[in-house]
Amino acid sequence: MMLDLDDRLDRIYENILDYEAKQVAELVKSEVEAGTDLKIILDDALIAAMDEVGDLFAEGELFVPEMLMAANAMKAGMEILRPLLSESDVPSAGKVVIGTVHRDIHDIGKNLVGMMLEGGGFEVIDLGVNVAPAEFVEAAAKHSPDIIGMSALLTTTMPNMPKTIDALHKADFKGKIIVGGAPVTLEFAETIGSDSYAPDASVAVSLAREMLGID
Ligand code: B12
């Protein structure tokens, strides 16, 4: 006997919270084959589970390794949906270009932010690490993102954030800018003219939504 839709979506949700990437991929695949609306799978199973992970992280119930495992499980489901979503008309929450600034190769936090944003329904273009200001500018022109996110983990690479912001402003970038990374503070973000700062990936998703006026 087949479970009803809510129970099947709940199974995907629970498997994300149990970090079962393989199970998530299989369940999402059979849901697609059953003809379930892609947006329902995305919103009610994948994004709902990542919202829960974000809340648990914010409450101190989950830590970075668990959040990464859950994000990986969600990603396994996203990989099934992504090619189908790009063909369909599910609206993306917005487009985000993200990268680690010049001369900095730390990417765990940036990847986590990217995955959580994807889980939150955003289209994410990841420029990788050691991204020079000119590369951010080039990506801004190419992709016209709603938001550009920058990560820095070294006090020596933090000054590359204002350099990148200046270059973006000179190039007339009209979108929003968000910065983060362990040494970055709200105060620093404010002095360099960033629109926003998030201390972790779950706050990054809520701020990205807020900046674009999505509830
Ligand atoms: C792992 C690590 C490495 C790995 C990186 C592997 C990788 N693929 O990323 C390796 C070994 C390569 C490395 C190299 C170096 N590292 Co290192 N590294 C770390 C370590 C231990 C953990 C960083 C991490 O991944 N944390 C976990 C993630 C999840 O947290 P996070 O990055 O802070 O991200 C969260 C938030 O900050 C936020 N966030 C992050 N990015 C963004 C972006 C946006 C837009 C938003 C909104 C939010 C956001 O959300 C994330 C998720 O919640 C830290 C110590 C530490 N505790 O931070 C040192 C640390 C950052 N490294 C340090 C140093 C010195 C180096 C080296 C210079 C060492 C050397 N002498 O070679 C090199 C630098 C190389 C380079 N040019 O970048 C120092 C920096 C000191 C300083 N104040 O500048 C630290 C603090 C260690 C120390 N205590 O000395 N490192």
TrEMBL record:
The keyword Thylakoid does not apply. Coiled coil: none annotated. GO terms for biological process: homocysteine metabolic process; tetrahydrofolate metabolic process. SUPFAM superfamilies: Cobalamin (vitamin B12)-binding domain (SSF52242), Methionine synthase domain (SSF47644). Signal peptide: none annotated. Keywords: Cobalt, Metal-binding. Residues 1-93 form the B12-binding N-terminal domain. GO terms for molecular function: cobalamin binding; metal ion binding; methionine synthase activity. One of its GO terms (cellular component) is cytosol. Residues 93-215 form the B12-binding domain. Belongs to the methylamine corrinoid protein family. This is B12-binding domain-containing protein. It comes from marine metagenome.
